[in-house]
Specification:
5 helices; mainly alpha; about 120 residues
C-alpha cells in the first residue's frame, strides 16, 4: 500500500480489519474517474469474495459507475435473487443516475416492489 496516493494493492492479511478503508479507496478511485484503478480494486474485491461474502449489489454499483451496464444489470439480478436489502438505498446513490430511465432497471424495480415512477 502506498502512503501518498491510491491503494492499488490491498494486503490480504489486513482485509477483515479494514473493510471501510478498502471501500474508501474504491470510492476515491471512482470519483477520481480512474477506471483502470477501479477495475483493479474490483478484481481484488472479487478475490476477497471467494473467501467471504460480498453482496452482488456492491459489484453492481462498481460496474454501473464504470458504465458497464450489462455487467451491472447482471449483478443487480443476482442481488435480486439473493434478496439484497441494498435496493432500499438505490434512490440516494448517484451511481444509478445514468440508468434510471433504463427498462432493465424498471423491470428489476418492479420485481423488488419499488415504484418505478420515483426513479425518474
Amino acid at each position: 500500500m502506498r502512503r501518498s496516493g491510491l491503494c492499488l494493492s490491498f494486503p490480504k492479511r489486513r482485509w477483515p480489519a479494514t473493510r471501510r478503508q478498502f471501500w474508501a479507496y474504491l470510492r476515491y478511485s471512482l470519483y477520481l474517474g480512474s477506471p483502470r484503478r477501479t477495475r483493479a480494486l474490483r478484481e481484488q474485491l472479487g478475490e476477497v469474495a471467494k473467501k467471504t461474502y460480498i453482496p452482488p449489489f456492491a459489484f453492481a454499483e462498481i460496474s454501473l459507475a464504470l458504465d458497464e451496464k450489462d455487467r451491472g444489470f447482471q449483478e443487480l439480478e443476482a442481488a435480486y435473487r439473493e434478496r439484497d436489502s441494498a435496493f432500499t438505498f438505490m434512490m440516494a446513490s448517484p451511481v444509478f443516475d445514468g440508468v434510471r430511465n433504463d427498462p432493465h432497471l424498471a423491470a428489476i424495480l418492479s420485481r423488488v416492489g419499488l415504484p418505478d415512477a420515483a426513479w425518474r
